[in-house]
Amino acid sequence: MSDPRFQARRATQTEIPRTKRGEGQWALGFTEPLNKNEQSKKDDDPLNVRERILHIYSKRGFDSIDPADLRGRFRWMGLYTQRKPGIDGGKTGSLAEEELDDRYFMMRVRSDGQLLGATQLRTLGSISTDFARGTADITDRQNIQYHWVEIESVPEIWDRLAAAGLNTLEACGDSPRGFLGSPVAGVAADEILDGSSALAEIKRRYIGNPAYSNLPRKFKTSVSGHPSLDGAPEINDVSFVGTVHPEHGPGFDLWVGGGLSTNPMLAQKLGVWIPLEEVPDVWEGVIAIFRDYGYRRLRSRARLKFLVADWGVAKFREVLENEYLGRKLVDGTSPERAVRNGDHIGAHEQKDGRFYVGATPTVGRVSGTMLTALGDLVEKYAADGVRLTSYQKLVILGVEADAVPDLLDDLEVIGLSARPSNWRRSTMACTGIEFCKLAIVDTKQRASDLIDELERRFPDLDTPITVNVNGCPNSCARIQVADIGLKGQLVLDDDGNQVEGFQVHLGGGIGLTNGFGRKLRAHKVTSAGLDDYITAVVESYLDDRTEDESFAAWVAR
Ligand code: SF4
After folding, report:
1. Which mutation among 143, 430, 434, 481 tests ligand 1's pocket best, with the greatest number of atoms within 8 A of CB?
2. 104: phi then psi, degrees, rounded to nearest 5
3. Over 90: is that where the pLDDT of 557 sits?
4. Do the bridges between strand 144-149 and strand 135-138 make them parallel or antiparallel, or are there none, so unpaired?
5. 53, 163, 334, 499: which one has the fewest Cβ atoms less than 10 Å from its Cβ?
6. Is 121 helix (H, G, I), strand (E, B) or coil?
7. Under a CB-based contact definition with an 8 Å cutoff, are residues 421 and 427 in contact?
8. Can you tell me the distance from the alpha carbon of 492 to that of 291, in angstroms, rounded to the nearest whole number?
9. 471 C-alpha to center of ligand 1: Å?
10. 444-465 residue pLDDT tens
11. By three-state DSSP, how is residue 394 classified?
């Protein structure tokens, strides 16, 4: 049970400003559900659906599933229905959800910054092969995502995951989603401090805890003590960012209120210093503020970023300290990002003299056979294991120096590259129309084809340019923070026909170029014309740049 300080706050009748229309904040007494999602969560704790899946739905089949569970509470178990094949993007907004629903599921497995050993990788591989038609994607939240999962298979999958120390609990839904940790936590020579123990403790205490299973909206967490800010702290609801206090030493600053999608906002620094062992308590304070004061009227205004924007960081810190922690936090600060990004690609020496090796699949797409083969490589090289990254990549940790060249070659054989081109390294894509019910356009295959073509046209690009391809405005693959961000939509071709295409955002980034891409409304490109469009943009940049001028700086001129 949670610390009593963090019990949900509910004002008494006399405290409630009844005359004023509220935003559904529980702490102000607005506890009556204001929309159907809130009603569903109030009707039944979404965590309870686990038992129904195990004992009813998996035995009686898809048609036995209560629609309120199917399209609502299943998400708390990491399950979404996937898009029925053959429905084009033009129908996405016009069809009811049940018309888009397939009888198969997407299933998301959390990794939470954990080190995955050979056994865990083989387990993940076998689940893909046995139950998901060989599919598996690494998401930019360090999850493994399967497709084609049938409800009858779910208990067996959960059993196998549990035996490997993994689960799908609260991987989706209005809950504390999968955490981002530093892929090189505990091994990087330049690490400020290792946040792994804090992440593990947050998971142990709070995931699956009914105190936090009914949030206004999703809640994204990042904890990293690596100076590259490899946990993308700018775009999480709560981020603990490694910093060194001049008196107290290594610890974390707290950033809150980041998020993309509509109304994108970067997380704001509270300017505090938090020692490692206090991170779980402070995390609970932040999520409790979100639960109690978060806006529940409109889902489009429910993310923590809206509360932070309205309150400002000074009030947020005051409420955290006074109402939840019962003490003041130590003043501190955190650095700006020191390097461009933290994908950790390539071979890098660890602090113990061994190496970590970052490798990339293409746009995060792996497979059951690839995961199993990766497990075999971990065993062959007696490596410590693998962590996933927030850039749809992976890192193999604990490789002996003299084994690195052979490992790099073996990785290429199974379809992973530690020596990728810029385009393979710096392109991400969301799920897109292949499986996602919100998608308007194809993303994974389109991005993969784009990479092949750009590798042919710019084989020796000497500066990184990131390309993020999204199937709709939701920005799962971070439209606004790429050099070239692509937002899927229908556009008109030269003959006036509606076809798949993208709105282009140029010059975004996180880190050195902290900012959002400029949305160039006039820049809409058909999917078929994408290769030539990007070629023209990149050629203009290469011709026009001054020495060492980055793509984002060139766009901002
Ligand atoms: Fe689906 Fe849109 Fe997210 Fe892509 S950005 S995975 S299309 S919701």
Report:
1. 430
2. -115, 165
3. no
4. antiparallel
5. 163
6. helix
7. no
8. 43
9. 5
10. 999 999 999 999 999 999 999 9
11. strand
Q: Using the CB atoms, write b or e for 132-155: b if 16+ within 10 Å.
A: bebbbbbbbbbbbbbbbbebebbe
- Amino acid identity of residue 296, one-letter, is R
- What is the CA(188)–ligand 1 centre distance, in A? 33
Residues with CB under 6 A from ligand 1: 430-432, 436, 438-439, 470-472, 474-476
How many A from CA of 116 to the centre of ligand 1? 27
Asked whether the beta carbons of 439 and 487 are under 8 A apart, the reply is no
Q: What token pair was written down for 221?
A: 């967490």
Interval between CA 553 and ligand 1 midpoint (Å) = 28
pLDDT digits (tens, 9 = 90+) for 294-338: 999 999 999 999 999 999 999 999 999 999 999 999 999 876 655
- pTM score over 0.90: yes
Q: What are the angstrom distances between the C-alpha of 529 and each of 89, 112, 433, 471, 502?
A: 18, 38, 18, 16, 10
d(CA 51, CA 66): 13
* CA–centroid distance, residue 39 to ligand 1 (Å): 25
User: At residue 181, what are phi and psi to the nearest 5 degrees?
Assistant: -125, 170
Q: What is the C-alpha end-to-end distance of the chain, expressed in Å?
A: 54
Ligand 1 atom having least distance to the Cα of 477:
5
Examine the pLDDT at 13 and tell me if it is beyond 70: no
Mean pLDDT throughout 22-29? 92
Q: Retrieve residue 244's tokens.
A: 């060194």
Q: How far is the CA of 36 from the centre of ligand 1 (A)?
A: 22
The alpha carbon dihedral of 255, 256, 261, 265 has a sign of negative
The SS3 assignment for 154 reads helix
Residue among 428, 431, 481 to mutate when testing ligand 1 (max atoms within 8 A of CB) = 431
Strand arrangement of the beta sheet that strand 180-181 belongs to: 180-181, 221-224, 238-245, 249-256, 268-269
